[in-house]
Amino acid sequence: QLQASGGGLVQAGGSLRPSCAASGRTFSGYPMGWFRQAPGKEREFVAAIRSIGMTHYANSVKGRFTVSRDNGKNAVYLQMNGLKPEDAAAYYCAASVSRLIAGMVPNPGSYDYWGQGTLVTVSS
Question: What values do phi and psi take at 110, rounded to 5?
Fold first, then answer.
């Protein structure tokens, strides 16, 4: 299971650091990532980190968000800086049990486990 936390309300330009803790099995050798879904929109890729430490980002968050993981804690984090109103959404963590190639990383269908969403609200 994946348990996400750390969302909240922040002013534009502010920062949040959602975290996602895994239990029941280890994902230390597999990709973990973050997706988001705003009301009325499809779920979209935000960021992911593969077992080799390689990170991937959506163009809309590059330079503002940083994904990291702590394999000892079986957890993944998303440092979000410079938040904009358009970043407001429910953020979902996800984990795969396959060693994904780069092209598969942004695809929600590549992930086998999902956490519940943690809500991020950005006021302008």
Answer: -80, -10
Length of the chain: 124
How do the pLDDT tens digits run along the chain, 124 residues long?
A: 999 999 999 999 999 999 999 999 888 889 999 999 999 999 999 999 997 789 999 999 999 999 999 999 999 999 999 999 999 999 999 999 998 888 899 999 999 999 999 999 999 9
Quick check: helix, strand or coil at residue 110?
A: helix
Q: How many CB atoms lie within 10 A of CB 18?
A: 23
- Which residues partner with 122 through β-bridges? 10
For 87: left if phi > 0, alpha if psi spans -120 to 50, otherwise beta; the answer is alpha
63: amino acid identity, one letter: G
The one-letter amino acid at 10: V
Q: What is the identity of the amino acid at 78?
A: L
What are the angstrom distances between the C-alpha of 5 and each of 8, 36, 106, 112? 9, 14, 21, 19
SS3 content of the chain, % helix, strand, coil (to 5): 5, 45, 50
